[in-house]
Amino acid sequence: MKRFLAGKVSEIPEGSKKIIQAEGRSVGVYNIAGQYYALRNTCPHQGAELCSGITASYITSSGPGDFVYEREGEIVRCPWHQWEFDIKTGCMITDPKMRTKTYDVTVERYDVSVEENQVYVHL
């Protein structure tokens, strides 16, 4: 496994992201509550730069007019078609009630480590 320097801890403060290049791949490195996560910066739908999309909350609702923001800063929304992915797992967020032909959809997630105030992505 190779590791690539993403930058210093101070360059990726809590609640932010940094996009890096590693072996020809564009990778978004996120700091969520002091933990670092890395995603491939490509939406599997049509290839948009996923990590340039909005970082948002997961919104739940028990009915009309009632909504709750959960998991602040843990969801990235594709800038082209608004597909949403969990930054921590790389999994697509979908409405489980919707039924249609299914396809495997994933975003690659990479391991990240912090050593001597340097953030590394492991491919």
Automatic annotation (TrEMBL):
It comes from Paenibacillus naphthalenovorans. The keyword Iron applies. One of its GO terms (molecular function) is metal ion binding. The keyword Repeat does not apply. This is Rieske [2Fe-2S] domain-containing protein. Gene3D superfamilies: Rieske [2Fe-2S] iron-sulphur domain. SUPFAM superfamilies: ISP domain. Keywords: 2Fe-2S, Iron, Iron-sulfur, Metal-binding. InterPro entries: Rieske_2Fe-2S, Rieske_2Fe-2S_sf.
